[in-house]
Each structure stands twice: as C-alpha cells, then as structure tokens.
Amino acid sequence: MWYITEIFADNADKARLITVLLSVLAALGVVYLTHVFAYRRSRMELNSKKMEDIYSAVTDFANAGWSHMHERAGPNEQTLDTTSAYSEAFHKVEMLAAIYAEDISKDITAMNELVILTKDGGHEDLSHFPKKLEAFIQAKSEILQKVSLRARRLV
Predict the structure, then answer these.
(1) Is 73 exposed, middle or buried (0-12, 13-18, 19+ CB in 10 A)?
(2) Which of these, 121, 136, 127, lies nearest to 69 by C-alpha position?
(3) Where are the domains of the chain?
(4) pTM summary value
(5) Are 132 and 83 in contact (CB under 8 A)?
C-alpha cells in the first residue's frame, strides 16, 4: 500500500491517474452504448422482418381465400389447386400468427371460417355469398391494420 501512495505522492501523478481513470470510464461508456444501439437495431430489423413475413402471409392467405370463395360460388367444381393453395396459405399464416402475433390468431380463424367448405359436401347457399365476401374483406383489412400497428410499435 505504501508503494501506491509513494507513486502518486506528486500532484502531477495524481492528475495523470485521474485522467487515465476518466479515459477508461469514457471508453467503457462508448463500448456499452455501441452495444446497446447495435442490439436495438438488430432487434428492430428482426421484428420488421417478422412483420413483413406475417403481412405477406396474410395477403397470400386472403388472395387464396378469395380465389377459393369465388371458385366455390361459381358453377364449376372446385379444383384441387385452389384448395391446396388455400390450405397451404392458411397453415402458413396460422403458424406465423401463433409464433409472432398471437393477437391476430382469432382473426385468422374467423377469416378461415368464412372460407371453409360446407361439411356435407353440398353446394353453398349463394344468397349469403356477398355478405361473406364483405366480411372476408373486412377481416383482411382488420388483420393487416393490426399487423401494421404492431410493426409501428416495434420500430
């Protein structure tokens, strides 16, 4: 201990010690702030990517559902292609919603219920078709609005 007091006995040496300590604290502060800002930026980019994926999946789901509904309402039998595309789009958006945005899962399920086939395999009553389309469009816009609001909060 006497060695330290002897080294810093002179006022100039004490001033050098204080300068070194302040420089070390400043360097540590800069390193910490750099880490914090880099973490925030990477988290923001990741969240932005997640919201883009969900937005894209909802749009694909809505387009596939729209095609599926129109095909069901028409005089022709529905093809396996639109049913398959719709099913894939639904499962993708359902998975992404469950992982990233649980608050829209109910909306996705409600939107799916507007599109699903009748259980008896018969033809649907077409008098309800315009109302279903309107509800489908409304559900899509509400989901996309929720995703947009969530993305804004994350940025």
Answers:
(1) middle
(2) 136
(3) 44-154
(4) 0.65
(5) no
